[in-house]
Amino acid sequence: MKRRDFIKNSVKATALAAATGGIGYLFHNRETTAFQNLVSAGEKSFTVAGDPQLPQVTLAVNPDHIRALQAALDAIGGIRRFIQPDEKVVIKPNIGWDRTPEQAADTNPLLVGEMVRLCLEAGASQVIVTDVTCHQAARTFVRSGIGEAAEKSGARVILPRDEDFIQTDLGGKLLTAWPVLRHFIECDKLINMPIVKHHSLSTCTIGMKNMYGIIGGRRNQLHQQIDQSIVDLTAFCKPTLTVIDATRVLLRNGPTGGSLDDVKILNTVICSTDPVAGDSRGVEFLAHKGVQVGHLRLAEKSGLGLIDYHQAGYKEIS
Amino acid sequence: MMSWKTVRNLRRISQVLFFLFFFWLILKTNFKVDFSKTVSEIGLPYPVSIFLEFDPLTALGTLLSAGTIYKGLLWSLVIIIPTLFMGRFFCGWICPLGSLNHWLSEIPSLNIFRRGKGRIKANKYKKYQRIKYYVLIFFLGAALMGTLQIGLLDPLPLLARSIGTVVLPTLHAFILGIVGAVKNLGWPPLGDAAQSIYDATAPFFLNFRQVHFNTIFSMGLFFLIILVLNRVFTRFWCRGICPLGALLGLFSRYAIFGLVKDEATCTKCGLCNLHCQGADNPHVGDKWRQSECHLCFNCIAACPENSLKFKFFPVQEHSTANPEPTQKAGIPRRMVLTSLVGGVAFYPLIRSGTDFSADANPRLIRPPGSVDEQRFLERCIRCGQCIRVCPNNALHPTLMEAGIEGIWTPIMIPRVGYCEPTCTLCTQVCPTGAILELTTMQKVGDDNNPPVRVGTAFFDRGRCLPWAMGETCIVCEEWCPTSPKAIYTKEEQTVDRQGNPVTIRRPYVDPALCTGCGACEYACPVIDKPAIYVTGIGESRDPENQILLERQLKEKEQAS
């Protein structure tokens, strides 16, 4: 070895030694217990200020479903009460199942389309329509008619993808760390658009149960504590407005349905700023009272709303 | 007359175009998410299996095994008839696997047997090239007996399944892996950029979400070996193994288009052999073999002396130094017979085992619209089109689930994906009628027609939450898509550990209503080994594999 090589090698070996040590130091992890990186979203409240002059639940009946929606919405203050110019709005219909609109397992596409139009008219910068479906998402979005109706009205229709879920701390009694579809927490206003359906475990699936569709992960475990999990979600995420589709109601074999024999046509739309009161009115179409529904009782107890919708403020337009 | 170099370029263009067309059809074997028009029946905009329907080997194989040429398979005549006059133009100009082998073989190599004189020598006809004829005859013998195995090696189904169920899903996982790694670098703008590139490009060639397939490794390895062998022997697959090439070689027996060599002008430079694809001896000195030639025309384009010509009515001055060409495949008669006997014997050897019916796998759930197992094995060519098109990732290739006879045939694995009740995509793409076409109405059934069933669900009460643990659940009931629901519940009394009475809803299956779609198994929260599972019994395709006498009577009444 020449002297020159000796020096060169020494320098190189020293540099490598420093680099190795540095990498070891940089990546050294003293944390020996399991830990989770959670996005602590806190409570996501998209609500607007209450107005004692206005009812909290409005109901309109009209065989023209768009008119019914407009009437119920006007009675609760109109779209401009809820949507301000340049806001990013997310609409969350129930697009859970691969069914056609007549089968009443998914929200009426006419109503979704109209709601998109109204939000854009009120100046929303962007309206997104999405849902974490049960059946294969692409099929449900197409066959339910909601994809088309929303897109034609100018919404951005987004299929939920695995990479768009954010592990979030829901801060619930039961639901803590859970993946949430990011669109539902990265918006200015959230409009919940459920349909009224029978559900053999939770009695009904209307607005509060519809919020299952903002999360992903192993939702099938939630049935074990269905009431608490629904209430946790309701407490975590408070939509600006709930628009309940009771134009067609699924009376039996819910929440999937499949047969037109299970469907009753009621031509009714409910708007509500109280998630409990709205559902309480909606469940009456299934021949139940709000107090008979476990998750409504628990929600009222948790201070999330009133089962007695008259007390909350109720107005009917026909 | 255009020069032979132009013809060679035309061939190159033809290879690229047909390969891209084949690839594009596989990409399109996937329903397009299009919100612009709401349809109640989701279909495919293109006849995506059209390339497979041009396959003469599939047509002949199913003709021997099933006795019919199903639907579009008559298109295979478009390949067969010109081959009778011209020879194996399909191998050199059209076959997408052939082209892939061609391109891989032509990448320059440093190996002395893969270049220069070594390659000229290696490209002479070799005895191993007969193997493909034995392979062909073996599988045709088996087909004759009623078990269609040819799809394992038939290049078009082989490439279709390799791209659709191996290459594209692994590519997807690879790309997602890279995007994830970039995001993990910890510099958000870079991660966002990676995600936007992915968002903008993925819809063109990747599925909506990552799919996962059973036994993808075995299929991938098989495909990889075929591709890698090109780096050892030029087009080893095409020359030595391919049964479709063998069939077209046999069809070239009376071709009237062939190679003519002029000994007088030949300088024995060997360039013709250097570029030869089929190892059919285009050089002066050995007899040219029609059955091996892919008609790639490399030899003529390469010949500096213009000593070679392809002609209709090829007449050649021949001598011992320049022997007359042969149109025979050159396979000994006793080997033909041996292969045939082997193929024929394959059938009893397999069928006297237990896999087929004596002790069939209860989890062998075939796609909806499938014909009964006997006929299914007469038809399925393992092209993987049904597996590729399934939007729920419900269909998978088998390894041993359907026995040796059924390797890589489709099976439903409800744990990964269930059968969407209104979806009929797999029934639309089968080129051979192993899965017959269904409409949504036929699949779902109505008052007068029973639904199409693929099996029946059963509870494992030892694992079911309400049954074994006194916990509330019934997700299976929620998901059950029939109306009325095949899964129903009853409120029952039980006691908890302390002895306190507990009321619990427990689920039951009504086998008269269950279609075996597997939604319950898919949704069951006991995810590792679900507490409700589907087995094949009750499947519509097999009148023998039934449980309920009453239902059979009712459905017979409905049918009449």
Structure overview:
The complex is a heterodimer of chains A (318) and B (560). By secondary structure, chain A is of the alpha/beta class. Chain A has a single domain (39-317), classed as 3-Layer(aba) Sandwich (Rossmann fold), CATH 3.40.50.11440. Helices cover 32% and strands 21% of the residues of chain A. Chain A contains eleven helices and 14 strands. In chain A, the strands form three sheets. In chain A, strands 2, 3, 4, 5, 8, 9, 10, 12, 13 and 14 form a ten-stranded mixed sheet that branches. In chain A, strands 1-11 form a two-stranded parallel ribbon. In chain A, strands 6-7 form a two-stranded antiparallel ribbon. In chain A, helix 4 (109-121) links the parallel strand 3 and strand 4 (126-129). In chain A, helix 4 (109-121) packs parallel to helix 6 and helix 8 (226-236) crosses helix 10 (294-301). The mean pLDDT of chain A is 92. With 560 residues, chain B is mainly alpha-helical. In chain B, strand 6 (487-495) and strand 7 form a beta hairpin. Among the domains of chain B are: 4-28 and 44-157 and 227-312, no CATH class; 159-207; 447-560, Alpha-Beta Plaits (2-Layer Sandwich). The mean pLDDT of chain B is 93. The interface between A and B is large, with 46 and 44 residues.
Question: Helices and strands in order, then pairings?
Answer:
The complex is a heterodimer of chains A (318) and B (560).
Chain A lengths: L2 H25 L16 E2 L11 E5 L3 H11 L3 H4 L5 E6 L15 H13 L4 E4 L7 H7 L2 H7 L3 E2 L7 E5 L7 E5 L7 E5 L1 E5 L3 E3 L1 H4 L15 H11 E2 L2 E10 L12 E10 L2 H8 L11 H8 L7 H4 L1 E4 L1
Parallel strand pairs in A: 1-11, 2-14, 3-4, 3-8, 4-5, 8-12, 9-12
Antiparallel strand pairs in A: 2-13, 6-7, 9-10, 12-13
Chain B lengths: L3 H24 L22 H4 L2 H11 L10 H10 L2 H6 L1 H11 L9 H7 L8 H15 L9 H30 L3 H18 L10 H14 L6 H6 L1 H9 L5 E5 L9 H4 L23 H5 L5 E5 L20 H19 L21 H7 L5 H5 L5 E3 L12 E3 L12 H5 L10 H5 L11 E4 L5 H5 L5 H5 L7 E9 L5 E9 L9 H5 L8 E4 L13 H11 L1
Antiparallel strand pairs in B: 1-2, 3-4, 5-8, 6-7
Helix pairs in contact in B: 1-6, 3-8, 8-13, 8-16, 9-10, 9-11
